[in-house]
Structures are given as C-alpha cells and as structure tokens.
Amino acid sequence: MRILFLGAPGVGKGTQAERVGEAMGIPHISTGEMFRRHVGSRTSLGLRVAEILAQGDLVPDVLTVEMMLERLRDPDTINGYILDGFPRNLAQVHALDGAIGDYALDAVVVLEASNEVLKERMLARGRADDTEESVSNRLDVYERETAPLIHLYRERGLVVSVDGVGDVEKITASIQTALAGHF
Ligand code: AMP
C-alpha cells in the first residue's frame, strides 16, 4: 500500500502518518525528518539546508527529489510506505510519477484544520523552525505550492479527507475507517 499524507504544517501529519504506518506495518517516510536528521548530524546536505528549514522555505527540488528517490529504493519499501511531506509541489509530483508511475499511489489522506489551530499547535510544539516568522511563511508556502496538489490528486480519485482536530487516537481511527471505505 502506498499512501500519501497531505495537509498544512502543524496539522498532525507526522504523528498520524507514523501511527497509521505502524498499524499497517509499512515505513513512514518523512522528508522533513530526513532533513532534520541531516542538519543534526551536520552532513554536507544538512549544512546546505539548515538555513532553508529555519526560514520555512522549501529545499530545492533537485536535493529533495534525489534524497527521496534514493530512500524509495530501500528494501523496506517493498510492501508500500506512507509518504509525509513529499511531494510538496507540482515538480515533485512529476518526479514521483516518473519514479513509481502516475497511478502508483493508492490513496492520499488530506488532514484538515483551521489556520488558527495550525498556528497555535506549531507555536506550542517548539520545534527549531516553529518561530512566528517561519510558521507564517510555511503556511503561505503550503497554500501556494502544496494545497493545489489536493485538486490534482482528487482528479485521480485518490483523496480521502479527514478532520485533523481532536483526540490523536480518534483521528487515527477516523483515518483507518476512511481508508477502509476507500479501498
Ligand atoms: P516538515 O517536517 O514536513 O514540516 O518539513 C520541515 C521542513 O523541511 C520544511 O519547512 C522544508 O523546509 C523542508 N522540507 C520537507 N519536505 C520538503 C519537500 N518535499 N520539499 C522541499 N522542502 C521540504
């Protein structure tokens, strides 16, 4: 099963993608986490992207796509995976389509929450890039670059929308129910 989680920053994608992946026995692949690990261990990629992450801008597609396509060649992806944070713009959609095929994803889970909830959650989370400036930039980047992908995946008949506000366990259960209804 290949599932993509889409949604604004702060909506709880990472938490839910991790939980659903664990329940399904498939890896949760988060580009944000991969970049943060590179920054933390000061690899050459980490040094190149640290400032970009801090500002909440998108890392250039060449770097992101190369890192991701390499990850998708790992043997643990053989039975599927949950993608979290990639693709984030149209060019990345095309790169993913080229690598796995236009109709290779089985579902796209879209988590929803209002901008007020998103801001509140991010500022409470306290991650290094959760400053007011970066948060508002990431919400803008999401609206401009990533939100249009929902329309594209809806046209492919893949979108399953789930309310991302409330109890973590209940949201996981809603996602699982919505996916079961989709397949
Ligand atoms: P996330 O953990 O998904 O919120 O991602 C954290 C940060 O990593 C983002 O604000 C971007 O700077 C970078 N990032 C993560 N995924 C991508 C992507 N697909 N393309 C470009 N930059 C990304």
Order of helices and strands: EHEHHHEHEHHHEH
Total number of beta strands: 5
> What is the global morphology?
globular
Number of helices: 9
* Side-by-side strand order of the widest sheet: 2-3-1-4-5
Measured distance between first and last alpha carbons: 10 Å
Oligomer: single chain
The hetero molecules present are: adenosine monophosphate
Question: Segments where pLDDT lies below 50 for 5+ residues?
Answer: none
Tell me, rounded to a whole number, the average pLDDT: 96
Report on this structure.
57% of the residues lie in helices and 13% in strands. The model has no long low-confidence stretch (mean pLDDT 96). Strands 2-3-1-4-5 form a 5-stranded parallel beta sheet. It is α/β, with parallel strands linked by helices and 183 residues long.
Q: What topology does this entry show?
A:
Elements: E1 2-6, H1 13-24, E2 28-30, H2 31-40, H3 44-55, H4 61-71, E3 81-84, H5 90-100, E4 107-112, H6 115-125, H7 132-146, H8 148-155, E5 159-163, H9 168-182
Parallel strand pairs: 1-3, 1-4, 2-3, 4-5
Helix pairs in contact: 1-9, 2-3, 4-5, 6-7
Adenosine monophosphate is lined by residues 9, 31-32, 35, 52-53, 56-59, 64, 85-86, 88, 92, 138.
